Amino acid sequence: MSRPRASPRERPQGFDLDRLANSCCARLSTAYSQRGMIAAPTPVPVLAVDAEAEAVVTVWVRVPAELAHDYQPGQYWMCWNPYDSTGDMDQPHHHSEKPYSVGDIRLDQTGVDTATAADTGGSGTALLGFTIKDLGKQSGELTRIQVGDWLGLRGPFGTTFPPLRSGERLILVSGGIGSTPLHMAARDVRMKHGERVTIDAVMGFQNKAEAHFIDRMEGVCDSLTVTTDDGSLGTQGFPTNVLPDLLDGCDVASTLLFTCGPEPMMRPVLQMARDAGIRGYAAMERYLPCSIAMCGLCMVGDRLTCTEGPVMEGEWLLDQPDFGHAHAH
Amino acid sequence: MANLRVSLPGLEMSNPLMLASGIQGGNAAALHRVAATACGGLVSKSIGPEPREMYPGPVCVEAADSVILNAMGLPNPGADVFAELLRTETFSKPMLVSIFGGDAEEYALVAQKLVDSGAGSLELNLSCPHAKPGSRALIIGQQPELILEVVSAVRDAVDVPLYAKLSPNTTSIVDDATAAFKGGADGLSLINTISALEVDPHVGRPVIGNLLCGMSGPAVRPVAQRKVAEISLAMLRGELPDAPIIGIGGITTALDVARFIQLGASAVQIGSALIWEDAAVFDRIHDELAEFMEVQGYADLDAMKGIALDSLEGLS
Ligand SMILES: Cc1cc2nc3c(=O)[nH]c(=O)nc-3n(C[C@H](O)[C@H](O)[C@H](O)COP(=O)(O)OP(=O)(O)OC[C@H]3O[C@@H](n4cnc5c(N)ncnc54)[C@H](O)[C@@H]3O)c2cc1C
Ligand SMILES: Cc1cc2nc3c(=O)[nH]c(=O)nc-3n(C[C@H](O)[C@H](O)[C@H](O)COP(=O)(O)O)c2cc1C
Ligand code: FES
After folding, report:
1. Could you confirm whether B60 is annotated as catalytic?
2. Count of domains for chain A
3. pLDDT score of A245
4. Fewer C-beta within 10 Å: chain A N or C terminus?
5. pLDDT attached to residue A22
6. Which residues line ligand 2 (CB under 6 A)?
7. Pairing between β-strand B122-125 and β-strand B95-99 as defined by DSSP bridges
8. What's the confidence (pLDDT) of residue A110?
9. Which is the closest atom of ligand 2 to the Cα of B76?
10. Which residues lie below 8 Å from residue A248, measured CB to CB, with a gap of 6+?
11. What value does the mean pLDDT take over residues A264-281?
12. ipTM (interface pTM)
C-alpha cells in the first residue's frame, strides 16, 4: 500500500496554522464541556516558542478560555510529545508523556481587534505556556520543539495550593524549574487580592545561565531574592541560606510558604518553615507515569502524588521518610 | 446484614471485592493503602523474573468514555525484590500474588521464589508474549498448549492454590480453561485486557507509547460477562471441573458485581474503576453490595450465585 507519511513537519505551502489551532481548540472545548477535563491525550499545534534561559523554553498553545480560567496553580497537564527521537513518527518507543505545570497564561489576541475586544468579550481562547527545562529525554526534545509541531495534552490533574486571605503574607521558595507553579501561584494571589497581600519570593538557580522567570516574578511579587549555587547571579548559595531573613520576625499566623523544586531543597525549606511556626506547602516533582491512580509508582508515604498531590502539606511531608531525596523523574 | 464472606482456595475473604492485578499493587505502600479500604482481597502487580522498566508514555489513558487503554510494559520490581517484600510485610487482607514469565521455566522459577517467601496463592498472568526466539507475537494465553505447559510447570514447582488468568483474545475460552485445569489450576480469573489500538486523527499516529495496547474499563464488562458465562456453562455441562471463577472487567458498581456472581463468579476484581474514585471505590461498592443483597433478600453470595445461568443453560 502506498501511503503518505505521518510527518506533519512537512506541511503544504500556505498551510493555515491558525485555522488548525482553532479546530484543535474546538476539539478541546467539546471534550472539556462534557467532562470538565481533557481525559484523552489531545494534540494542539505549538503556536510560539520563547527562549527563557539556557535550555529553558516556554511553549505556547491555544486552549479554550474557560480551560485557562479554571486552571488552578500547582495542577499539571500530561504533555505528550508524539515525535520519535529522529523528529519523525515512524520509530516506535521514542515518544513520551510527562507532567508539566502551567508556567504562564496569556490572553489570546489572535484575530482580536484590540479596539473592540472589550465589547466582544475577546475570542474565547487563551494561550497556555508550558515552561520546560532540558533535564533529560522528553524535556530535551520539548525544548527543541518548533512552531507548528504537535503537543498532546490531557488534564488538568492534581491538587492546588490553599487560598490566601487579604492581609496575609506569602513566601515562595523555588529551585530551578520549580519556578513554574510558584509563578502561577503568585500571579493568582495577586489577581485575587491586589496589594492586600505581601508576596516575597526566593528563586534558586544553579547559575546565571539557567536563571529564568525573574521579570515575571518581579512583576507579581513585592520582593525577589535570587540565589545561584556559583554566585554568578544574586546571592551565592542556596535558597535556604537567605530564607531565615524572610522568616525572621514574620507574623506566623498570617504567613504561608509554598515551595517547589528538588526534594533535597524542599525538605530543609519546609523544616525551616515548621521551626518558625509557619504553614508550608510543597508542589512535588515526582515521576508520574500514568497520572490517574493506576500504576501506583508515585507514592509518597501512603499517598499517590498524581491525585493526592502534587501540592501537599509540609507538616505531613516532613513526617514521610521517603520525602526529601533526589529522584529520577 | 447479608453475609458477604467468600472462601476460596488460598483466599478467606470478608467480601468478594479484590484489587485487580497491575493497579497500584507493585509496592508495599500502595498495597497497604488499598488493604486499608473495605476490599476483600488484593492481587499484586504481575511479578516477573527480573525488574522491568515502564514503556514510554502515554502508558494508560481514558481514550473515550468508559474505555481505558494501557500498555504499561509490565513494570515490576522483579521476583527477588518482591520476595523480600513478602518476607518483611504483613498485609491486612489476603493477597493473590500475580506472576508472569517468558516461558514455563521462568514462571516456575518466579513461583518458587515467591512461595518460598510466603505467597499463599498465585495468579498466573498468561497474557504475555512467549520468549521463544522468533515468537515475540505469540501470547502464551492464546495457545492452549502453552497454557498447559506453563500451568503444569508452576504446579510441579509449588503447592499453593493457582488461579490461571485468562486472556479474552482467543477463539475458545473454554479450550483455554480446559488447558489450565489440565495443568493443575485451582481456579480461573478472567478477563485480562482486550487487544486494542487507538490512533489520534490530528497527529496521525497511535496514541499509546507502545503503539498496541489493551482495553479495560466499563466498556469491556459485557465481553467479560460473556466469557465468564461460557466457562460457567461448560462447568454446568461437566466439560470443566467445578472450580472458582474470579470475574474481572469493567466493574464500577455493586450491580456489576452481582451480574458477575449471577453468571457464576465467586469473587471479582476491580481495576480501572480506581481511575475515577481511587481505592475508595471499594468502600462504596462494599456498602452498595451489602444494601443490594439486603434489599433483594439474599442472605449470602451463594443465594445469587449462577442464577442468571438458568436461562442460558440450553445454549451451548
Ligand atoms: C506536577 C509536576 C509538574 C512539573 N512541572 C514541570 C515544569 O513546569 N517544567 C519542567 O521543565 N518540568 C516539570 N516537571 C518535571 C517533568 O515532568 C519531567 O520530570 C522533566 O521534564 C524530566 O523529564 P525527562 O524525560 O526530560 O527526564 P529523564 O530523561 O527522565 O531524566 C531526568 C533526570 O533524571 C535522571 N534520571 C533518569 N532516570 C534515572 C534513573 N533511573 N535513576 C537516576 N536518575 C535518573 C536523568 O539523568 C536526568 O537528570 C514537573 C513534574 C511534576 C510531577
Ligand atoms: C494500568 C493497568 C495495568 C494492568 N496490569 C496488569 C498486570 O500487571 N497483570 C495482569 O494480569 N493484568 C493487568 N491488567 C489487567 C487488569 O488486571 C484487569 O484484568 C483488566 O483491567 C480488566 O478489569 P477492569 O476493567 O476492572 O480494569 C492491567 C490493567 C490496567 C488498566
Ligand atoms: S502516576 Fe500512576 S498512580 Fe500516580
Report:
1. no
2. 2
3. 95
4. N
5. 95
6. A 294; B 20-23, 45-46, 60, 68, 70, 72, 74, 98, 125, 165, 192-193, 216-217, 220, 248-251, 270-273
7. parallel
8. 64
9. 8
10. none
11. 97
12. 0.95
